[in-house]
Amino acid sequence: MIRARQVRIIDEEGNQLGIMSPEDGLRDANERGLDLVEVAPNASPPVCRIMDYGKYRYQQSKRTKESKKNQHTVTVKEVKYRPKIDGHDFDYKTQHVRDFLEAGNKVKVTIMFRGREMAHPEYGQEIIQRVVNGVKDLIGNEADPKRCKLEGRQMSLVLSPKGSAK
Question: Is the same domain home to 36 and 60?
Answer without folding.
Answer: yes
